[in-house]
Write a structure and sequence with these properties.
The protein has about 160 residues and is mostly helical. It has helices at about 15-20, 20-35, 40-55, 55-70, 75-80, 90-105, 115-125, 125-150, and strands at about 5, 10-15.
Length: about 160
């Protein structure tokens, strides 16, 4: 069983899924639970935005492909990083989710502002909001796993 990955510079890194399978499965379960009841397009927008902010090419590649499969348009995918300047591409609910994604992902820069939280709470019922928040937490975790283990963009290992 291979327990290392080789990144683009040829450096060996831990293969997290094979070395810590119980932890990996727990993350998959957390991710699956977080998605429950959420629109697949919204799920991908959240994951794409967090991956942009975290500079995670592996997850960004994976989730832009997943978004296309879910019916997302190229126009909207290109606008995700600049959604504030292109609000007309996104619904109020999507904008609230993107703002919350940014605040939670960059939480060390000043927490989650009350205005951002209130906007999300106005667009989502409590259960949906809990799932959106959970999804933001899971993608941030996945980004950190991918970055720490030097996952290479374009090598999605899902079956």
């Amino acid at each position: 069983m291979t327990t290392t990955n080789t990144n683009v510079t040829g450096t060996a890194r831990l293969n997290f899924a094979k070395t810590a399978p119980k932890v990996f499965r727990a993350l998959i379960g957390f991710d699956a639970a977080a998605r429950e009841g959420l629109d697949p397009t919204l799920v991908e927008l959240i994951q794409i935005r967090a991956s942009h902010l975290n500079h995670c090419a592996y997850c960004l590649h994976m989730h832009t492909n997943d978004a296309r499969k879910a019916g997302e348009t190229e126009d909207r995918l290109h606008m995700v990083p600049v959604w504030r300047e292109a609000r007309h591409f996104f619904t109020e609910k999507e904008q609230a989710a993107l703002a919350l994604t940014e605040a939670v992902t960059l939480v060390a820069d000043g927490g989650v502002p009350d205005t951002v939280y209130a906007a999300a709470a106005a667009c989502f019922d409590e259960q949906e909001l809990a799932h959106v928040l959970s999804l933001i937490l899971t993608i941030n975790t996945w980004n950190r796993v991918a970055l720490s283990t030097a996952k290479v963009a374009g090598t999605d290992e899902r079956g």
